[in-house]
Amino acid sequence: MASAVPKVKLSGPMLQVDGLTRYFDVSPPLLNRVLEGKGRLYVRAVDGVSFAINEGETFSLVGESGCGKSTVARLLIRLIRPDRGSMVLDGDPVDEPHGITVNELRRQVQMVFQDSYASLNPRLTIAETLAFAPKAHGLPAAEARERVRDLLSKVGLEPDTYAERYPHELSGGQRQRVNIARALALRPRLVILDEAVSALDKSVEAQVLNMLVDLKTELSLTYLFISHDLNVVQYLSDRVLVMYLGKIVELGPVEAIYGDPQHPYTRALLSARPSMDPRKRTKEAPIQGDPPNPIDPPSGCRFRTRCPFAEDVCAKVEPLLADTGRQEVACHMRVAGSGHSKATAA
Amino acid sequence: MSHAGSGFGPFESDRRMSDLLQVRDLHVTFVTPDRTVHAVNGVSFDVKRGETLGILGESGSGKSVTLRSILRLHPEHRTRWSGSIRMEGDEVLDMGARALGDLRGRRVAMIFQEPATAFDPVFTIGHQIAETIRQHTGKSETEAWKRARELLEMVRIPSPAQRLKAYPHEMSGGMRQRAMIALALSCNPSLLLADEPTTALDATVQIQVLLLIRELQREFDLGVIFVTHDIGVAVEVSDRIGVMYAGKIVELASVEQMVDAPQHPYSRGLLASTVHDGMRGQRLEAIPGAPPDLAEVPTGCSFAARCKFVRPDCTTGPPDLRATSDSHLVRCVLAEAAA
After folding, report:
1. A contact residues 45-84, partner B, Cβ 8 Å cutoff
2. Which of A43, A216, A220, B191 sits at 20 to 30 Å (Cα–Cα) from A279?
3. Is A276's CB within 8 Å of B210's CB?
4. pLDDT tens, residue by residue, A173-206
5. Do residues A250 and A269 touch, judged by C-beta distance below 8 A?
6. Using CB atoms and an 8 Å cut-off, which of residues 256-275 of chain A contact chain B?
7. pLDDT attached to residue B3
8. Close Cβ partners of B291 (under 8 Å, ≥ 6 residues apart)
9. How many domains are there within chain B?
10. Does a structural domain hold residue B316?
11. Could you tell me if B177 lies within 8 Å of chain A, comparing CB atoms?
């Protein structure tokens, strides 16, 4: 194992991401573009996103569909390449001449996906799936077998019962446990959980969440947790990043984001959660309409088309992330002298 | 919009007094050459006009199968039914093709989780709504399009006249779901069946659609059956909630009773294992194990294998649905003690 080589521990974040950007080309064919006199079209999936993940924390990414949260995950593990932006893992730049390779990155960073069935090769037994990566990275067969048994016990599956089964012989919850075990097979330090519990039934979700909490302590893991379920995010996270149409709108500790949200979008997202009390049902939807198409996002602040406080400045100037003390927020109302009538006094 | 022309005939007032829908001891079994699945095993409930019944359950609990049975949407040659489903007094399980067509098109409407697949992609939204209206009410083409426009206004789709000409793929998910609600209500049904209609929507859109359904239900005095796996969603829309497990309703109560004092160990477990505000740092109370295989008819309580209060008499026979108070039914041997 490469991770056996001791690494000089640097102070500073475990993973630092700067200006991460990825556009997807969704242009119609050339002939149609010429006939209609239109240029190329891009989905601005992730547009200049910067953040840092500290060792040992659970860092969550939330937002609605199309906000770019899954694209961020895929960029971090280099399933897709960014157009721009840099990534530094433990002080080493990733995929750059003087930095670490993508292979080395993937030893340290692993990912669990939402669809537990599509993530597993249906023609491999659970043991073969789990031994695949360790063997590919040079672990002898006997040790790989030991590793498989160990991994299965860690995720609460009896090795003698489950090792020789195929994915279709397991329930959804059991398959997701296998996916988590596979992500842990190379002993990574950072695990990206992309909607990893979203497809599970509530009673099974609770089992898996408890297991994730235990594994994190036992194996000193760091989690990047991606979800649309704000209740689960609040339960698990130390820090939360809220995205809207490819941009960060708010970033801060979980207490600040949930207790004192600063961005109108964060507030809307939190109050759109269904009530658990029949006497306090939601009377009015916090915002109207759907998120706009990320192909042609609004100018300035991308949230302005749905924001109840939007003014002229919001259409003209793009708000930058500003530190409010407890959290960072990208809203003109939180920047003194921004030109917004509700801007905080200087 | 008036409801007077909805055409229940001289029995309208009588029918309004009684239950809109009565389901009694419904069993649904799917039979294929290699497998038999006992999906629904004795479900009974009523729905009145102007009332929303939430059916809460996990995947495989039989909640969608129950809902689809009301329109007999299951493949006839592979499905075995028993029991009774009475819609305004008419037995759905005995209906012939013509009565069934009228039931599906006019009297009962259904909305689905994925509006993109519920609409035909090659026709405009307006065409599909107007066609339905003409088919079931005999209105003229012009009248039907006028009505379609009113319907889009009613579900608050902006610039409805233009939207009538849109194809399903040209609308966002939330818009499509609104259009599907418009289609569902186009022939003034008295019962609306909703099968997880907001599950595929974003959070900020979901709440808009839930509020819309609640509002239309009140305005048109509809009976609604709302199937969901999300407790929060069920609490937002329901007057009563039925919790399903392994093809049976294990608890049926008013929404307040269900949230404040759930009595069946499964309902309690489900509420306790749902993460919500203020649970940070606590260990979640997960229900161990997984739901049973429905290839066999359960002999005792289906939840016994996962229940922490299990007693010897749990496995001797299936427990009855017992009333522990007015309007609170529980299918558990322990419920008697609570009464």
Report:
1. 64-65
2. B191
3. no
4. 999 999 999 999 999 999 999 999 988 888 889 9
5. no
6. 268-269, 272-275
7. 41
8. B58, B60, B61, B245, B246, B302
9. 1
10. no
11. no
pLDDT at B13 over 50: no
Phi, psi of B59 (to 5 degrees): -65, 140
CB B324 within 8 A of CB B250: no
Show the domains of chain A with their CATH numbers: 9-123+166-334 (3.40.50.300)
Q: Residue length, chain A?
A: 346
Nearest to A330 by CA among A268, A252, A274: A252
* pTM (2 d.p.): 0.88
Distant-in-sequence, close-in-space partners of B79: CB < 8 Å, separation ≥ 6? B28, B29, B30, B31
For the record, the structure tokens of B310 come out as: 């299990």
With respect to residue B17, please indicate whether it lies within any of the assigned structural domains: no
Q: A263 to each of A102, A229, A252, B14, B201, how far by Cα in Å?
A: 36, 18, 12, 54, 22
pLDDT category at A8 given cuts 50, 70, 90 is low
Which residues on A lie below 8 Å from B240 (Cβ)? none
Contact at CB, A272 and B58, closer than 8 angstroms: no
CB distance A234–B175 less than 8 Å? no
CB pairs under 8 A between A and B: 124
pLDDT tens for B210-260 read 999 999 999 999 999 999 999 999 999 999 999 999 999 999 999 999 999
Contact B202 A65 (CB under 8 A): yes
Distance, CA of A269 to CA of A263 (rounded, Å): 10
Q: Is B310 helix (H, G, I), strand (E, B) or coil?
A: coil
B261-293 b/e (C-beta count within 10 Å ≥ 16 → b)? ebbbbbbbbbbbbbbbeebeeeebbbbeebbbe
Residue-level pLDDT at B166: 93
If residue A260 lies in a helix (H) or strand (E), which one and from where to where?
none
* Rounded-to-integer distance, Cα B261 and Cα B255, Å: 10
| Angle A121-A127-A133 from CA coordinates, rounded to 5° | 70
Sign of CA dihedral A145, A146, A151, A156: positive
**Which amino acid type is present at position A278?**
P
Q: Which residues of B touch A173 (CB under 8 A)?
A: 290
Domain, as residue range, for B182: 1-12+50-61+95-238
Residues 118-157 of A with CB under 8 A from B: none
Residues 190-229 of B with CB under 8 A from A: 202-208, 210-211, 229
Give the tokens for residue A22: 């990825």
Handedness of CA A263, A268, A273, A276 (dihedral sign): positive
- Cβ neighbours for A5, distance < 8 A, ≥ 6 positions apart: none
Locus of tokens 């969550």: A60
Average pLDDT, integer, range B120-141: 92
Helix (H, G, I), strand (E, B) or coil at A83: coil
Q: What are the two backbone dihedrals, phi and then psi, of residue B216, each rounded to the nearest 5 degrees?
A: -65, -35
Query: At B145, which CATH number?
Result: 3.40.50.300
Query: CB neighbours of B336 closer than 8 A, spacing ≥ 6?
Result: B322
Residues of B in contact with A174 (CB under 8 A): 290
